[in-house]
From TrEMBL:
Gene3D superfamilies: 2-C-methyl-D-erythritol 2,4-cyclodiphosphate synthase, Spore Coat Polysaccharide Biosynthesis Protein SpsA, Chain A. Residues 238-390 form the 2-C-methyl-D-erythritol 2,4-cyclodiphosphate synthase domain. It comes from the Bacteria. It comes from Devosia oryziradicis. The record marks 159, 215 as: Positions MEP for the nucleophilic attack. In the C-terminal section; belongs to the IspF family. 4-CDP-2-C-methyl-D-erythritol 2-phosphate binds at residues 244-246, 270-271, 292-294, 368-371, 375, 378. PROSITE patterns: ISPF. This is Bifunctional enzyme IspD/IspF. The lineage of its organism: Bacteria, Pseudomonadati, Pseudomonadota, Alphaproteobacteria, Hyphomicrobiales. One of its GO terms (molecular function) is 2-C-methyl-D-erythritol 4-phosphate cytidylyltransferase activity.
Length: 396
């Protein structure tokens, strides 16, 4: 018997105004959550399941560049499609994009719910054997009051009959596509896809959800999401330091902090000799007890000859994430007489932040001279020192 094909629509077309009420900062689906963008976490939850055959993200028309920075790579991940003014219309765009594939089932997921577990997803899929639709729910535990004017209680609802809807919501593809097409012709906005299915006469099952399967909506939700990721684990902060030096040789530019800076010489080294990123990489590796840069990228290995040092830095950051940790802050000091570092600090912070998936506010870059003393004072080379603060699960 042929296994059913299962596609996923990840709805990420909103601007996240309630999280960024003042209009500043990234939309919530692109904000960092424990070192990784929310949207990347949401998509990866489905990429982790071999049963998923295709995933289509639906994004805001202004967010193409933001989405590209996620750098997600999987043959099942389709090119993003542009959403519409409402969530309902955006889902329809996702359904249209999947139509040529004709999947048997489709799961519709909010981008701002990064904690859909394997169990919850499996429960939804299993229910589609008997029902045309299914969604995870959580029982309502608070007493719910109804008011006609927002001031006086009119009645108290029976909470035993009330459930909070979550995503992913699953459906048989052809039926929900047809229901969405019909719904688009009437002047009514539905609150979720399950309501459209109900309106179309489809049977929708409820399956057990997860109280941690929260939708990030308000600023305080990020703090709760961080706690969910850390779980019951006790975290501890570790400090690592790094030091590196490279001499000058004939050339016309130096690489520092991932930025090419014109100069009367270049730095000599096996890679691009970026002394700042080398020191920073060693600091991160030291904080998690993973040796130094030479252990992971031996100078004797020719594949690293001339390599961009951002590759080394990213590897260190990936090891932190693999250990279940996060980078708290980074501090780099560059010692040289020339070139001038100040004009390039902002660009360096941006490159380091993008490489590690952290905010620029967590990165400090300083420069100083050695007052013309020693080899740096004689402009024979550059020194960099770095420290890294990393939070990781406590190991007794």
């Amino acid at each position: 018997m042929r296994e059913k094909s299962i596609a996923v629509i990840v709805v990420a077309a909103g601007k996240g105004k309630r999280v960024n009420a003042d209009g500043s900062g990234d939309p919530k689906q692109y904000r960092q959550l424990a070192g990784k963008p929310v949207l990347a976490r949401t998509i990866n939850a489905f990429l982790a399941l071999p049963s998923i055959t295709a995933i289509v993200p639906v994004i805001h028309p202004d967010h193409a560049e933001r989405y590209a920075t996620l750098r997600l790579a999987d043959e099942r991940l389709l090119a993003p499609v542009v959403g519409a003014a409402t969530r309902q219309a955006s889902v329809l765009e996702g359904l249209k994009a999947l139509a040529p594939l004709r999947p048997d089932l489709v799961l519709i997921q909010d981008a701002a719910r990064p904690f859909a577990t394997t169990t919850v997803i499996a429960n939804v899929i299993a229910a589609l054997e008997r029902y045309e639709g299914a969604l995870p729910v959580a029982p309502v535990t608070d007493t719910i009051k109804r008011s006609l004017d927002g001031q006086q209680v009119s009645t108290t609802e029976d909470r035993n009959q009330l459930f909070a809807a979550q995503t992913p919501q699953g459906f048989r593809f052809g039926q929900i596509f047809s229901a969405h097409m019909r719904a688009s012709t009437i002047r009514r906005q539905f609150t979720d896809d399950a309501e459209i299915a109900e309106w179309a006469g489809l049977r929708v099952a409820m399956v057990e959800g997860d109280r941690d399967n929260i939708k990030i909506t308000h600023p305080e939700d990020f703090a709760r999401a961080e706690r969910i990721i850390s779980g019951d684990r006790q975290m501890e902060t570790r400090i690592g330091t790094g030091f590196d030096v490279h001499p000058f040789e004939p050339g016309d530019a130096v690489w520092l902090g991932g930025v090419r800076i014109p100069h009367k010489a270049k730095l000599r080294g096996h890679s691009d000799a970026d002394v700042a990123l080398h020191a920073l990489t060693d600091a991160i590796l030291g904080a998690i007890g993973e040796g130094d840069i030479g252990v992971h990228f031996p100078p004797s290995d020719m594949q690293w000859r001339g390599a961009a040092s951002s590759v080394f830095l990213k590897h260190a950051g990936d090891l932190v994430a693999k250990a279940g940790g996060r980078i708290v802050n980074l501090d780099v000091t560059i010692v040289c007489e020339a070139p001038r570092i100040g004009p390039h600090v902002s660009a360096m912070q941006g490159i380091i932040a993008e490489t590690l998936g952290i905010a620029t506010s967590r990165i400090a870059i300083k420069a100083t001279t050695s007052e013309q003393l020693g080899f740096t004072g004689r402009e024979e080379g550059i020194v960099a020192m770095a420290s890294a603060s990393v939070e990781v699960p406590r190991v007794d």
